[in-house]
Amino acid sequence: MSPEERAEFIAELMLHIKAVNSLTDDEQRWVRMAIEKEAQSISLRKAIIEKTLTSLIWMLVVGIGYIILDSAKQHGFK
User: Fold this and answer.
1) Which domain holds residue 60?
2) What's the pTM?
3) Residue 60 within any structural domain of the chain
4) Taking 70 as the threshold, does the pLDDT of residue 62 lie above it?
């Protein structure tokens, strides 16, 4: 098989593969919507994790402040 014949064969093969694997408009729309839904789900999970960590840090700061305040009251500071 010469290089020209091989290139022609590959081009024909690619055309046939594209014809078999092409999606209809409805299928393409469904795939886009599924991708968008997954992206929204990922962003929601990320936001929940971020807000949870922020709340935990604030709880830690308030807890340490309460411990310091309680310790100061027990040692006579008002």
Assistant:
1) 25-78
2) 0.57
3) yes
4) yes
